[in-house]
Amino acid sequence: MADDRPIDLLLVEDDEGFRETAAEWMARNGLRVTQAGCGAEALEAHSRRHFDVAIVDMNMPGMSGLELMDRLRDAGHETQIIILTGQATIENAVAAMKLGACDYLTKPFALAELERRVRMAADRLRLQKENRQLKELVRRQRPATRIIGSSAAMQEVLRLIDRVAPTHRSVLIQGESGTGKELVARAIQERSLRAERPFVTINCAALPDTLVESELFGHEKGSFTGATAQKPGLFEIADGGTLFIDEIGELPSALQPKLLRVLEDGSFRRVGAHQERRVDVRLIAATNRDLRTEVAEGRFREDLYYRINVITVHLPPLRQREGDVALLLEHLLQPGWEIEPEARTLLDRYRWPGNVRQLINVLDRATILADDRTITIDDLPQELLQAAPSADGPAEAQDRDEDDLASIERAHIVAILEKERGNKARAARALGIHRRKLYRLIQRYGIESAETPAAAAE
Hints:
By secondary structure, this protein is of the alpha/beta class. It is built from 19 helices and 16 strands. The strands form five sheets. The chain has a five-stranded parallel beta sheet, with helices on both faces. It has a five-stranded parallel beta sheet with strand order 7-10-13-6-14. Helix 4 links the parallel strand 4 and strand 5. The longest helix is centred in the N-terminal third of the chain and has 30 residues, at 111-140.
């Protein structure tokens, strides 16, 4: 196999002398071998452990090699099977290949040749798994967005990402909702030694408790109502790469021991399965909860907390990222769009309780409402206008800032209307806005016709 773990080999042969000799050869050359003297012993071994390759003798008492292959296929095993026989016939070869054998070897043969065939089969299994992973990634993955921020708080986060990324340790990302925890997880993956391997995500808060186990660990056909087919879990899809579990604080308590075990030794079982599977997955978890409080109140296992909290990245809220709002605006705005200075001031000074996610939504809304590809105060939602934020100042200062800004804009509109003798079409052109927007501003600021000369015919 291309990874570092040894090939798991099941050797099924009723000739004890040959079986032990072959097993000794394979073990001496780095393979992990389990022996079985008949089909029943092989099925029992396979129910407890997943094997990469099985060497199966065609002719055995009780259950033939073909019957054993058929049983393994019905159980949904992916094990690559090499058939051995002393009676080389085309019929046997065709039958074995139809049942899913990957290779066929006629006795006698050199053990070195058998070992070579085993390694080829293991490589074939790895390529099949990688192909599945790639298809799943194409379906799941979305383009990554680079992390934007020059504030001291974000520079510290970026430095920490560079430090932790090359390791294989679990990472816990803590931060308020909307701060970009998944982007940090992707940045860690892209800078890690697993950058070319799968990056798979799951949000525990987005799934019912009854589905989380099946999503993470997979299930066997018929293991529960609706399980009409075998399904690999996200741990299998992420094998060799990274699994990002968002909102891990929402993980059902019944699943926490199972997650702890796979993090400790890489082993797990699909829902409804008896055999164990092994994976090599790096975990990155994220939460907006205080997991220490969750542990103290008995809602989160303490041993699991310490297992996922090897390295912690604290992601600051947007209100603590001085200067980053302006950078984010430039990054998020489409080419050709502008923001009026008054609107930009409001956006920069707002406290953003929903963080970057809220900023994205506000800009999306504003670009729908704006005229002439220019965002003004009138295009911003009421919660921004009512809050009139200033950087952590008292409420009275915030109110004064809002009143001052509104007064300046109102006076400017009145002055233009007076200059244009109340002609709203010319006033809108002079202000550089659409006439509909001017009507909305007149209504918003309560500008009476008495404040301006009588309008000329428009």
